[in-house]
């Protein structure tokens, strides 16, 4: 069995929770969070909160395939991290009553890596490839034939003596997840029969996510406390669940474990998550942009040096939310702080600031 293949996925009934180390408030999964996240994942489309269009469309695809007795079309899930793409893949396998095989694009460096995984599939299995846009080109080209014809050609030998051995594989459903759909090649994107775009969550849906997670963790929580946590979660369920676990720690240490509004606000203050969901690094970027460079424009490299981080961290972790929150604008000359960013830091924006009327 290939070393890139994980075992069949079985949804656990009871899973011990582990406490995650502190991390920036971003939607990427950090070490130590997998077990806790797995215990909070919904197990069916009915339990899945939010994404109503995706749920309804996917339900039609799966129900139609079951009635015809065939495997569903391949599914592509795109959207920012933390919105439930992996969870949706698990639910697809659960709804179909089949096994789920999981891997990631970066792990498939050679065509042989993919061939080893495909050859171990059973009929009707769901193959989930996370970050599929990062799959190596040789493996991607092999995937074309597997997706369309359910067969692959394995090359044996090198040079003039090389021979191609056709290998039939059972019909399967590929579920690909990507945070950068624009990086997918056209031929790969066109082979997916159903494409879904995951959207950021609204406050009401996130409040339901927090309330449901608190019930699973057996943590009593007030409605206004759940609303407070949801409002600081950047529209992302993974962040909401992470913040809930930190607030739970605060409530257990400082009181009887009951989460009320004061406990939620106190915990989030200790963990440097403000009213907009910004953490220490986000505010450091804003302060460097406004106090250090007069509001910009300034390049991301200069901001990274000012806050002592890598440029990739600022660009991939901080900047997406700052732009979406209307605090930073990306221009051809560099990053510019908006009037909302000045006000958020308690400063008066100068005349001509973007967003100032």
UniProtKB/TrEMBL annotation:
Region (Large ATPase domain (RuvB-L)): 21-201
Cell compartment(s), UniProt: Cytoplasm
Residues annotated to bind ATP: 40-41, 82, 85-87, 148-150, 191, 201, 238
Alphabetized UniProt keyword annotations: ATP-binding, Cytoplasm, DNA damage, DNA recombination, DNA repair, DNA-binding, Helicase, Hydrolase, Nucleotide-binding
Chain residues that bind Mg(2+): 86
Region Head domain (RuvB-H), residue ranges: 275-357
InterPro entries: AAA+_ATPase, AAA_lid_4, DNA_helicase_Holl-junc_RuvB, P-loop_NTPase, RuvB-like_N, RuvB_wg_C, WH-like_DNA-bd_sf, WH_DNA-bd_sf
Region (Small ATPAse domain (RuvB-S)): 202-272
Sequence segments annotated as region (Disordered): 1-41
Sequence positions that bind DNA: 330, 335
GO-annotated biological processes: DNA recombination; DNA repair
GO molecular function terms attached to this record: ATP binding; ATP hydrolysis activity; four-way junction DNA binding; four-way junction helicase activity
EC number: 3.6.4.-
UniProt-listed HAMAP family: DNA_HJ_migration_RuvB
Function: The RuvA-RuvB-RuvC complex processes Holliday junction (HJ) DNA during genetic recombination and DNA repair, while the RuvA-RuvB complex plays an important role in the rescue of blocked DNA replication forks via replication fork reversal (RFR). RuvA specifically binds to HJ cruciform DNA, conferring on it an open structure. The RuvB hexamer acts as an ATP-dependent pump, pulling dsDNA into and through the RuvAB complex. RuvB forms 2 homohexamers on either side of HJ DNA bound by 1 or 2 RuvA tetramers; 4 subunits per hexamer contact DNA at a time.
Subunit structure: Homohexamer. Forms an RuvA(8)-RuvB(12)-Holliday junction (HJ) complex. HJ DNA is sandwiched between 2 RuvA tetramers; dsDNA enters through RuvA and exits via RuvB. An RuvB hexamer assembles on each DNA strand where it exits the tetramer. Each RuvB hexamer is contacted by two RuvA subunits (via domain III) on 2 adjacent RuvB subunits; this complex drives branch migration. In the full resolvosome a probable DNA-RuvA(4)-RuvB(12)-RuvC(2) complex forms which resolves the HJ.
Comment field on protein domains: Has 3 domains, the large (RuvB-L) and small ATPase (RuvB-S) domains and the C-terminal head (RuvB-H) domain. The head domain binds DNA, while the ATPase domains jointly bind ATP, ADP or are empty depending on the state of the subunit in the translocation cycle. During a single DNA translocation step the structure of each domain remains the same, but their relative positions change.
Name of the molecule in the record: Holliday junction branch migration complex subunit RuvB
Originating species: Corynebacterium halotolerans YIM 70093 = DSM 44683
Gene name of the encoded protein: ruvB
